[in-house]
Design goal:
Chain lengths: ~325, ~550
């Protein structure tokens, strides 16, 4: 019963967050200077043509009415029609979504696979060489600028060594197994740049939590009972140290998706991030809003799932 | 406890693996090539004897496949290869035959006619006739489509009187009418576009029927646009394009694009390269660089609705305070020519005025002009009182952002204070539209028909009359020029307008940019044409390009 109540409260909170994000986005894009008709207008258009364009976009209505219309559309799952491409926003985004999921998903998995042993190594060799390298590397990685990392990787591994392609997500004219290899080759550099940028946060968080956990009494008890240090670290301390890291996955997801905007642009990767980048330049409100809603929803869902997982994993969370 | 924890950890691990698997699986249906397994030439065979694939980089996706609606650069590059224009440009900026063979006006200027070729057909086998031309121009007029609709205000009616001849009725003589529709209006198939309820809403995003050298066959948004050569394109030497395919690939970042060109992933970059990149690439022996002039110009405009910019002495002082040659050499790396401060630039040989002269860089002259106009430097700080201006520009334009600083520093030497306001593009457009600036720095992409375009620039109500020009002499000359039916008749009044504009500093034309494009040396036979829109990717050029020996 407690878990049900806990679940519905979290769900309500998620929906409220989503509504808030939708509202802020709606008004924010309309606060941008300039109007979309101007962004696409050409000098030879007549004033009537420009007015007609605004009317076609529904932008001649009062702002509040536009907002209500938008919400009404949204609850029906309709994200509207793109101003620039006469195509439903949902279609545009769904076409792009799998690529973004694959990029961010593999970056996340890679981060965890590399980050976990690194964090453990740093915590168990506190103050040692590995620890220092991890600490410095973690901070440096987090402060890097995506385009710089991207271009550097492309220059070294794409142009210099020729190991990986420069841009795109898949070669043309490849089929079957070859297509998967091509997809994987195109994925390596953009995923690596996302890993480099976010791995620091995971490793440093894990390191701190693990050091704390290793000093706890239950670890001392385990040691007193004759468990090897390896068992103490991996079977006892790491379990508890991982809990806050789970939360970080939810929190970092927003960052990961934000990083994808620049990463996809640099690596010519055809995901949602690129769609955002392009729609901002063209003031294509429906696509901008749609993409933000989709991303906000992803983060809200991820956080909801993390919360729920936490509720299952740690009974104390449910009760409080 | 231990067992239950183990189970939870195992579940978590399984959940992560499952999530990763779902993401991978979600991408599989998007594998664009697996679905249509037709074989075809490999992307790697560029340069072989069969013609091969030319892979062209662009920074943006196609926004709209309907050539009468889409107006982004990539839209035009792709649709230009499919929907023929009646005219194209030669290297002197003159309109020359493409689909059209001849054209002319009736003696009173109230009728016009175009003859087109009789040997083109659409890819579905239907002949391309004058009916298609009449249908296209009528749809543009009736539905106010795109930029062309603003150019055909004089047209009342268009009729196909035979398979190859279209006749137009005009409400007033308009000497730019035929050139404007000839160059700017792609002809679409009436039997396809006419089926749609409205041409404006026709997305044209599949089953393309075209009559250019190539036809779209495959679209992967965000990645590539594949066009196959058609068998019958009489405008090409040999009756069809040499290439097998043209593949536009999207690289939003110019630096990535250049890396792709150098690594052999691309054969050509369609967008003009920034001067800094040109410098970097000019030493690379494996690349060929092509240079074409802009059909527009870069300039500053002074808002004459505001004091003291309404005084011509102040505008002249501003114009003489800038070292234009330094800007061309330092900022543009020499990739620009002087327009002799004239709105009739040297790109258009038939209009340019040989006697035009650039504003001399002379800060002392600027100072004396300001002093003659009564301005003083009361506190002796070297700057004149009440001569301080805000200059707006688009920070997305790296060239203008750089020279804006030079202009500010040089003007300060002449005692004129300029405060720079670099703005995000949409803010910049909005403030220009509201005429909310002292000095505007920017550029026109294409001003190809001065007879009609000057009205946009210098008429009191002109959409891009940012400076606020309102001059009865110019109005009368524009009237004369727009109704002139020959180049000889139009040249006189146009050159007189240009002289007045220079003299009154209605528009300070600073330079004509020379765009540079890069291709690998694996290809030859490009036919470069002026402007970034035509450049080396115009249909004539891509129909004639072939692998280098």
């Amino acid at each position: 019963m407690a878990i049900l109540r806990f679940g519905s409260l979290r769900l309500l909170r998620g929906l409220l967050t989503l509504w808030f994000a939708v509202t802020v986005t709606f008004f924010l894009v309309r606060l941008l200077p300039g109007d979309p008709a101007l962004a696409v207008a050409s000098p030879t258009m007549t004033a009537d043509q420009r007015a007609k364009m605004l009317a076609d976009f529904g932008l001649d209505e009062p702002l509040l009415l536009q907002y209500v219309n938008y919400l009404a559309q949204l609850v029906q799952g309709n994200l509207g029609i793109s101003f620039r491409q006469s195509q439903p926003v949902l279609d545009i985004l769904l076409e792009r979504l799998p690529w973004t999921l694959m990029l961010t998903g593999s970056a996340l998995v890679l981060t965890l696979i590399i980050g976990l042993p690194l964090g453990v190594a740093a915590a168990t060799h506190k103050g040692g060489t590995i620890d220092r390298i991890v600490q410095i590397g973690g901070v440096v990685g987090q402060s890097l600028f995506v385009p710089t990392v991207g271009i550097a990787l492309l220059y070294a591994f794409g142009l210099g060594l020729g190991w990986f392609p420069i841009g795109g997500a898949i070669d043309s004219d490849v089929y079957g197994f070859e297509a998967y290899i091509s997809m994987a080759r195109h994925l390596v550099l953009p995923a690596l740049s996302l890993v480099l940028l976010q791995i620091g946060a995971y490793v440093l968080t894990l390191r701190t939590n693990l050091i704390d956990a290793l000093g706890e009494e239950y670890c001392n008890v385990a040691r007193a009972k004759g468990s090897s240090e390896r068992t103490v670290v991996w079977k006892h301390a790491l379990r508890n140290a991982l809990l806050p890291t789970t939360t970080l996955v939810g929190l970092q997801l927003g960052f990961l998706v934000g990083g994808a905007v620049l990463t996809e642009t640099i690596f010519a990767y055809p995901g949602i991030g690129r769609a955002i980048y392009e729609s901002v330049g063209q003031l294509d409100f429906p696509v901008m809003q749609g993409a933000f809603v989709l991303l906000a929803a992803t983060v809200v869902v991820a956080n909801f799932l993390t919360d729920m997982a936490y509720g299952f994993l740690d009974p104390r969370v449910r009760v409080s | 406890m231990r067992n239950s924890r183990n189970t939870r950890a195992g579940l978590r691990g399984a959940a992560i693996v499952a999530a990763a698997a779902v993401m991978m699986a979600a991408c599989t249906p998007s594998d664009p090539d697996a679905a249509d397994d037709e074989g075809g030439t490999s992307g790697e065979d560029a340069g072989d004897a069969s013609g091969g694939d030319l892979r062209i980089g662009t920074t943006a996706d196609v926004v709209n496949f309907n050539p009468l609606v889409g107006n982004s650069r990539t839209d035009t590059w792709v649709t230009n290869l499919m929907y023929p224009s009646m005219m194209t440009l030669n290297s002197d900026g003159e309109k020359v035959p493409a689909l059209a063979t001849e054209w002319g006006y009736g003696e009173d200027g109230l009728t016009a006619w175009i003859e087109i070729r009789d040997d083109l057909e659409w890819t579905d086998g239907t002949a391309l006739t004058a009916e298609d031309v009449a249908f296209t121009v009528t749809a543009v007029k009736d539905e106010s489509l795109g930029t062309v609709s603003g150019m055909i205000g004089a047209m009342e009616d268009a009729e196909a009187v035979s398979d190859t001849r279209v006749e137009f009725t005009l409400s007033r003589p308009d000497g730019a009418f035929l050139n404007s529709i000839g160059f700017w209006m792609p002809i679409v198939p009436s039997h396809v576009f006419g089926e749609a309820p409205t041409v404006a809403d026709f997305a044209n995003d599949s089953d393309w029927v075209s009559a250019g050298p190539f036809v779209l066959t495959e679209v992967d948004r965000g990645q590539r646009y594949v066009l196959d050569a058609v068998d019958n394109y009489p405008l090409a030497e040999g009756g069809q394009a040499n290439l097998d395919r043209v593949i536009y690939r999207v690289y939003p970042d110019v630096n990535t694009q250049v890396l792709a060109l150098r690594s052999g992933e691309l054969d050509l970059i369609a967008n003009a390269l920034p001067p800094s990149v040109v410098k970097e690439l000019s030493g690379d022996d494996s690349l060929e660089l092509y240079s074409v002039p802009s059909l527009g110009w870069a300039h500053m405009q002074y808002n004459m609705r505001r004091e003291p910019l309404d005084q011509v002495e102040v505008r002249r002082a501003l114009a003489h305070a800038v070292d234009y040659e330094a800007i061309r050499q330092v900022v543009l790396g020499g990739n620009a020519v002087s327009a002799n401060s004239s709105v009739l630039t040297p790109t258009f040989a038939q209009w340019a005025d040989d006697t035009a002269e650039e504003y001399a860089f002379d800060p002392d002259l600027s100072r004396s002009l300001l002093e003659d106009a009564g301005f003083e430097d009361a506190n002796g700080d070297g700057m004149y009182d009440d001569v301080s201006f805000e200059m707006i520009y688009d920070t997305g334009d790296p060239i203008i952002s750089t020279w804006a600083e030079l202009v500010r520093d040089q003007s300060a030497e002449a005692g004129i204070e300029i405060e720079l306001s670099g703005l995000e593009r949409n803010t910049y457009l909005s403030r220009t539209q509201d005429r909310d600036f002292d000095i505007y720095a920017g550029s026109w992409a294409i001003i190809d028909e001065p007879q009609s375009n000057f009205v946009l620039l210098f008429d009191e109500e002109g959409f891009i009359n940012y400076a606020g020009v309102d001059d009865p002499d110019i109005d009368a000359l524009m009237e004369e020029a727009s109704s002139a039916l020959t180049v000889e008749d139009a040249r006189g009044p146009l050159q007189e307008i240009a002289r007045i504009v220079t003299d009154e500093v209605y528009d300070n034309v600073m330079y004509v940019e020379q765009f540079t494009f890069a291709a690998t040396d694996q290809w030859t036979g490009f036919d470069p044409k002026p402007s970034e829109l035509l450049s080396v990717v115009n249909p004539q050029s891509l129909a004639s390009v072939r692998p280098a020996e």
